[in-house]
Amino acid sequence: MSDALPEKQPTTEHVRVSMDAIYNWNYGSEIDSIRTLYANALDRQWIALKDLNWDRGIDRKLFSRTFSVAGIPLQHTQWWKRLDPDLKWRVASKTSAFLLSNFLHGEQGALMVASEMVAAVPHMDGKFYAATQTMDEARHVEAFAAYINLLDEVQPIMPSLKEILDKTIGCESWMHKAVGMQVVVEGLALYTFRDMRNTTEEPLLKEMLTYISRDEARHCAYGVKYLGFIISTLSDEEKADLEDFAFEAARLLIASRAGNSARDSMFAVWQSVGLDPMDAINAIRDEQEVVTRDVPPEGGAAGPIRGFVIPTLQALGLFSERIEGHFRQLFSINMGEERAQALEFAWELPENLEEWVLSSESAIRR
Ligand SMILES: [Fe+2]
Ligand SMILES: [Fe+2]
């Protein structure tokens, strides 16, 4: 377990990009909903170092009491409450620095893909909007990096996240980029940021995630609106190709390969600060009632893929029986063949993403 953390990485790394840049000589609006989203984005710009109250720093007590462990309310167990406050802070700050570092690296990937989209998409509305997203993602990189610096230090990217970013940055077609980034990566980010925002009572983190989640809601909406506009014009073969790309991205993000999974990396972090992961596992087992009582029944169990990414694919018409079979097979690795086959994909995409992201309502049941 101790070697599950990725190696220290070099400061810069290259990835080759191959895509066409498209001029559009028609400067009028062609897709109203995207032009509206662009206007909305202009209206809601904010300044990370000015609009957030950095002076108050991190409230360590509130942070340790309400930090997120992949949706498991570990901090509600008696075992956790009895731990030494210093150890609690070390576990909470290191675990969170690990998670937030991966958010940060994901934001850098989003920054690069958004800027590629400015050149790659064919419609002027799409270019305008992608320009605002580029600005949003720069601000997110800035904000996450500043917060992590107060907490601990930036940790290396998880290999599976790096692979999906490489694929999305490097691929040729803007529609594949949109599926990989706007649907899968942004969907996972929106769902996870929202969970963390609802869980944490640390004021600076909550405030930062409120601003960021509101931006991310627009980024997801861009994918839904733009792909929704274009998908009806595609052949079955082209749609199947996009479905495969979405599935591969989702698979990479939830891949639990030996040594690469978020859980193994988290356990390695705990060990590095003097907490035995087996103690945590035993506490969860012994206090099962507390742990399950605090997990929201439907939404919590849905998770980002079933609760958000799949509903988005369904809304876009990118969830054929064929690809549904692939997803069932993927889930069977984690929950067993029988339960995976019986799964219902019963959640729907919230109509107003910005409203939903700021609410405490979990995934929405059909
Ligand atoms: Fe972002
Ligand atoms: Fe984003």
Describe the structure.
This protein is mainly alpha-helical and 366 residues long. The chain has a domain at 32-235 and 259-288: Ribonucleotide Reductase, subunit A, CATH 1.10.620.20. Helices cover 68% and strands 1% of the residues. It is built from 17 helices and 2 strands. It has helices spanning 32-43, 48-51, 60-65, 78-82, 85-120, 124-151, 159-170, 174-199, 203-231, 236-254, 262-272, 277-286, 288-293, 299-316, 321-335, 337-342, 353-357; strands at 347-348, 364-365. The protein is globular, with a radius of gyration of 20 Å. The structure holds fe (ii) ion (FE2) (2 copies). Residues 110, 137, 186, 216, 219 line the site of one fe (ii) ion.
**Second-tier CATH architecture of one domain:** Orthogonal Bundle
CATH class of one domain: Mainly Alpha
Strand fraction: under 5%
* Main structural class: mainly alpha
**Order of SSEs, N→C?**
HHHHHHHHHHHHHHHHEHE
Main β-sheet description:
2 strands, antiparallel
Helix content: 55-70%
Count every helix, treating DSSP H or I runs of 4 or more residues as helices. Answer: 17
Average pLDDT for all residues: 88
Q: How far is the first residue's CA from the last residue's CA?
A: 40 Å
